[in-house]
Amino acid sequence: MKKTITLTIFSFCLTLVALCAEPGRLSNFIIKESLLRNDKLAIIATDSNETPLEVSGRYQFNINGFKQDLRFNEGVAITPQPIEKSTFIYLKHINDSTSVTRLYYVWKKADSLTPIKINLKLLVLIPIAIVVLSGLFKRFLIYGIIILVAMFFFNSKNGLSFPTFFETLYEGLKSFFF
Fold this sequence. Notes:
It is a single chain. This protein is of the alpha+beta class. 39% of the residues lie in helices and 29% in strands. It has helices spanning 2-20, 120-136, 141-157, 162-177; strands at 29-33, 41-45, 57-63, 66-72, 76-78, 87-94, 99-108, 113-118. The longest helix has 19 residues, at 2-20. The protein is globular, with a radius of gyration of 22 Å. It starts with a helix and ends with a helix. The model is unreliable at 5-23 (pLDDT under 50).
């Protein structure tokens, strides 16, 4: 009799814990080169301190405007497309409550990939600073315009199109105020 009551209470507690537990949410991530060195990137689920998490399951990402369904095993997912040349990678994951966006410049050397995280706030501040400085000093107006055009040309040539750039700016401005 006591075993039956104990077993019933134990199973009730397990059911309650399973119902109240938060499903594996992906609220932060970083990218690294895949350990196989096959020119693919590994997306690693992390917490806010960038400590890896043990997340498993399928999560939908938007990678440079293309929807990808990535499978996480023990906190790591591998992107399906190999990186052929240095490029910008814009990653966006939408949770139930928020969206997580990251912008990386992936620098490809002969045998390795080096992802460089680009702070969205800097992406907003640098063009604004160039415009303000060229406006303050009239003789630098031409140089400011040349720098902005060169920056936009470099960005678009390396995979950061204008719609993606403006979406990134929007996300950067949201991070300023929220």
